Amino acid sequence: MDARDWTVGSRIEHPVHGPGTVTSVGTDYLGIAFDDSGEVLIRREAFAQQARLPQATEPIQAPRKTLPWPASTFVAEPADTPHYMGSHWDPFVEDSAQIIDRLPEIVPGAMVQTGYGEARKPDWDAPPDWPLGFQLVWPLREQGLALILKPEEQATVMASLFPFFARGSQQTLTLHAVSVWEGGLQAQIEASWGDAEVTFFDTQYLINRVWYQTGKSYDFILTGIAYSANVAERHEWTIDQHPDVVAWLEQNLQEGEQPHAGPTTVSLDGASVFLPVEGWDVDDYSFHAPVKSVTEFQDWLGQDGWRVRATVMRVGEGEGQTDADLDIVITRRAWAGAAPPQVGQDIEGRLWLQGYLWMPEFPKSPRKTRKPR
After folding, report:
1. What domains can you pick out in the chain, each with its CATH number?
2. What tens digit of pLDDT does each residue of 191-249 get?
3. Global pTM value
């Protein structure tokens, strides 16, 4: 359809969103109610460019989920992929060497970590070429440090060392892929959390890896370990709305809503923001979140602090919108402030997102479930 033919009520075909009906025609913007995805405002220029997109000449690869397991789910990342495990100790010590120097006294008192896949087996076996390893934790299975160990002919080698906190928030995620690190003993999980895509470090990968399948839903216990956190600063911006945008908003006013004409003030007060940190690892996030609860903890690897449940995202729209809450553990070393975090405050900072399998998806039937540790 030529731009001159756009009128309210016209039917159009968008190359990405499909068929829809024009609801608003402005100088620079079009309001379009798409049959399958609701009403949006699109720049005329962008619509015209997308309509002229050439057809793909290369064959489209089959979705990963159509491949046989485990290729459908597990992706070996390139050997030179950077990970910054040493930075995970910043909330606890000045230098990670302080932890490593204590290993001779820690290892004798460590215990084998337990998890869902320890005593429960899926309907298939682990491939014979998967590397073997095991995980020790100290001083508790609920919180402390974890060691990933690999047995070899001459000795047992430590593959990784990281802090963990098992008492997080339970969330249902749809798994997309498991990104397996070099050596095959550690991994990050890519999944959908409501409408958002997230990646987190799997703290019990060796225990539960055989359970994972792309496209399946699982209950995970998620925890954010704060690198830094503070009471959120107040952020406000004044925005002059484009006349086409104002006209479209006025057209869609709901009963009781105020007109949108004139400058609009935008504030982050009460907002939930959860974004990857550019240039950091893919499981590192910045957050701005209202606090729902605060629980004090003591002596987690020498640090006292707080387990803060905060709303980092809001899922869905309108009356069906729900809060996506995450437990963020904040050591006193990571907290910038004399007073502890408080319920009702907005906090912000940066965190490392970790989690572990709590329960696979099962058919809907009466079943007893354990409570998270």
Report:
1. 3-51 (2.40.10), 64-217 (no CATH), 227-360 (no CATH)
2. 999 889 999 999 999 999 999 999 999 999 999 999 999 999 876 656 666 677 777 77
3. 0.76
